[in-house]
């Protein structure tokens, strides 16, 4: 049975795409002569990494499912804590459009949270995004409402890197929206227990044809280059600056790194989380 929407990234070519629901994808050209590395990744499955030339004459790839031990059921307290609060009217910047003269080349962005209690239950998250399509890079020049589809990932803490670690939820959380700036996702029924003093909420971009758009890149001198492909959504940057950089990004190698594009002026994504104590 095909795995829906597998993330496929090619390292040196700096390309990434998601497969369609049938699990099919194609790479044009003679694979035997290509000197690049390809990575296949899907939630709940082990990452598969290979040189492209090793795929020559293969017509299918089988991913290995990861073992997942569901946590014991926790009762949800009526005493809740809202994390990373801010005034949404003050959001002026967005991640996911472009980065100066280069396109946006991250598979996921994650917001770090301090858990109010180890063993608490994540009840919901609210993600603020750019609702309108941009004409070029001028945020006041809107061309239409943005359809978007993305996935929400919940991670624990990697004790070595201090970045996102293991998935805390085995269910695929896919979100679709046509016109909402604030997207609130109810997670109460998923029993997502926070096992560490810190946890992460990530947006995973779905790089398929239906979720694709275009932006124009600005050079340092203010002139614009040709338009390039980008994928929705554009995630808001919190207007509240904190003492630590709390944004992490997953690159095409699927490595998590601190995301410094908006620092030191801004330190957090416009994502709120509510945790029961």
SSE arrangement:
Elements (H helix, E strand, L loop, with lengths): L6 E4 L4 E4 L18 E5 L6 E4 L28 E4 L10 E2 L2 E2 L2 E2 L4 E7 L6 E8 L3 E4 L2 E8 L2 E10 L6 E4 L5 E5 L4 E5 L5 E2 L4 E8 L6 E7 L5 E8 L3 E2 L10 E4 L5 E3 L12 E6 L1
Short synopsis of the structure:
The protein is mainly beta. It has strands spanning 7-10, 15-18, 37-41, 48-51, 80-83, 94-95, 98-99, 102-103, 108-114, 121-128, 132-135, 138-145, 148-157, 164-167, 173-177, 182-186, 192-193, 198-205, 212-218, 224-231, 235-236, 247-250, 256-258, 271-276.
Can you offer a commentary on this structure?
- This protein is mainly β and 277 residues long.
- It is built from no helices and 24 strands.
- The strands form seven sheets. Strands 9, 13, 14, 15, 18, 22 and 23 form a seven-stranded antiparallel β-sheet that branches.
- A hairpin with a 2-residue loop joins strand 7 and strand 8.
- It starts with 6 loop residues before the first strand and ends with a strand.
- The relative contact order is 0.23.
